[in-house]
Amino acid sequence: GSGSFVPAVVIGTGYGAAVSALRLGEAGIPTLMLEMGQLWNKPADDGNVFCGMLKPDRRSSWFKSRTEAPLGSFLWLDVINRDIDPYAGVLDKVHFDQMSVYVGRGVGGGSLVNGGMAVVPKRSYFEEVLPRVDAAEMYDRYFPRANSMLKVNHIDKGWFEETEWYKFARVSREQAGKAGLSTTFVPNVYDFDYMRREANGESPKSALATEVIYGNNHGKQSLDKTYLAAALGTGKVTIETLHQVKAIHQQPDGSYVLSVDQIDTAGQTVAHKEIACRHLFLGAGSLGSTELLVRARDTGALPDLNAEVGAGWGPNGNIMTGRANHVWNTTGAHQSSIPALGIDDWDNPAAPVFAEIAPMPAGLETWVSLYLAITKNPERGTFVYDKATDRAALRWTRDQNTPAVNAAKSLFDRINKANTTMYRYDLFGPQLKNFSDDFCYHPLGGCVLGKATDGYGRVAGYRNLYVTDGALIPGSIGVNPFVTITALAERNIERIIAEDVKAA
Ligand code: FDA
User: Is 356 known to be catalytic?
Assistant: First the structure.
């Protein structure tokens, strides 16, 4: 294959990667970003870049022959998923033995498919999870920097109270209140002014047209519109798409060499490249960065990586559940796909829960109240290299999610009792199931800060090798994670540029 050298390579284009590339570019360092997914900017035949949730096509999924939506069924019927052609689509569901993980694929990573909820963790919990990180510095400087760069904004409370699009959230708030639970407004990167124009019929609908997990055609201020646009604007950063990094090794002079497969949108390999760099930043996400390092260690390519590489993984306590409302308590055929409220019971010492009040935008009345609960589950998984498949396998068993299910159950049992309602058992596939305990949206850890790396993401055992993304966070952060990933990346890259890159 062709060989080339660049001073800095960033793998991936999600939150950690985008922050790192921008700051490297601003420091004048020529930086190459390698992203396995596509750049999502060209409309297809239907005039849209992305497809909606109700009629998904091949754009929805990363090389699947059938879509794999988080809610697999309705009244136990498989009415939600569709057969599709395998394609380099935007949402992937990565299957491990007893856990599946949703991740975004494309320029912007998870920001293309996520709900945009931009939550700063409770400071006391941040200090508990990352005790060696100076919290004052984070809360005074890096969280505000992240929020401002990510264009985090707030819903107009007056509009929230009156619009049909958030009736589902008001219904859930009232029911939580009856159980003595309080809710909180959640900031978002979706432009709420744009959403109001959608509601007024002044702009094309996106959040109000069921778009979210397969991408938003409008309104969402994803990373390609914020950090990555700024990174490209420095003139120092380039992005190669459909480039998947397969392996990393080091040369005697200390530089790193990446083996990269370039694919087409049908998945055919069109080129193999070897790319060398001085400074290597892993921003391929908890799964991607961890797999690259586990593989490098266990194939002997980077033998000095320590035993913490692969350890400390968790799903942020994610549990999804649905409740069935009384027939007079309608949640609305019209629901914004962007969440705006959370039930905050994190200070409950017995079972801390922060539950996003999730929409179920079906276009018809469902009487469902849906939630993504974030719980405090102390269980952790470990990635191990599987030689036969050349993949990192996740050692995590279903029963490790029992503490998370129990915490969610204690909260939603309270809500059901106070409202004489029941769970829905028909949403998570063909069996009777009221809690999803087998998938997550918030993979965290695998290369934990201060264990697999030093206190700033420098990988232990190697110079000029860094982890920048959700792999650094030890399995739990108590809220939706991308603001924390972004702020931590801002903190780390500032130090690394000053001490390692500029000094070199
Ligand atoms: P991220 O996963 O964003 O980016 C990694 C990138 O690297 C991807 O683009 C991937 O394609 C690429 N890559 C991986 N391996 C590679 C390789 N070998 N070579 C080249 N490229 C490679 N969070 C939140 O705070 N609020 C929310 O509302 C939500 N909602 C939500 C909904 C859904 C459906 C999902 C799937 C996720 C969320 N999240 C969320 C989670 C959030 O999106 C997630 O925590 C971040 O995107 C993680 O950021 P990272 O920088 O760690 O990696």
Answer: yes
Confidence at residue 261, expressed as pLDDT on a 0 to 100 scale: 98
Distance 357 CA to ligand 1 centre (A): 21
Token readout for 166 is 């958030």
The CA 99 to ligand 1 mean position distance, Å, reads 17
Are residues 35 and 244 in contact, defined by beta-carbon separation less than 8 angstroms?
Answer: no
Residue 15, CA distances (Å) to 84, 148, 309, 487 in order: 29, 14, 21, 9
DSSP string for residues in 226-243? THHHHHHHTTSEEEE-SE
Q: What does the block give as tokens for 169?
A: 């959230």
**Does any ligand 1 atom lie closer than 6 A to the CB of residue 36?**
yes
Whether residue 16 has its Cβ less than 6 Å from ligand 1: yes
Phi, psi of 353 (to 5 degrees): -140, 135
And the tokens for 154? 């707030």
Crossing angle of the two packed helices 402-419 and 167-178, in degrees rounded to 10: 90
SS3 state at 73: coil
Mutate-to-test residue for ligand 1 from 9, 10, 15, highest number of ligand atoms within 8 A of CB: 15
Exposed/middle/buried for residue 42 (C-beta within 10 Å: 0-12, 13-18, 19+): exposed
What is the atom index within ligand 1 of the atom nearest the CA of 480? 25
Measured distance between the N- and C-terminal CA atoms of the chain, rounded to whole angstroms: 29
Q: Which atom of ligand 1 is nearest to the CA of 244?
A: 19
In sequence order, the 6+-apart residues with CB closer than 8 A to the CB of 272 are: 1, 259, 260, 261, 262
Chain position carrying tokens 């604007």:
233
* Residue 198 near residue 206, CB atoms below 8 Å: yes
Q: What is the pLDDT of residues 88-128, one digit of tens each?
A: 999 999 999 999 999 999 999 999 999 999 999 999 999 99
Residues of the chain where predicted confidence (pLDDT) is lower than 50: 1
CA distance linking residue 373 with residue 454, whole number of Å: 31
Closest CA to 27 of 276, 281, 248: 281
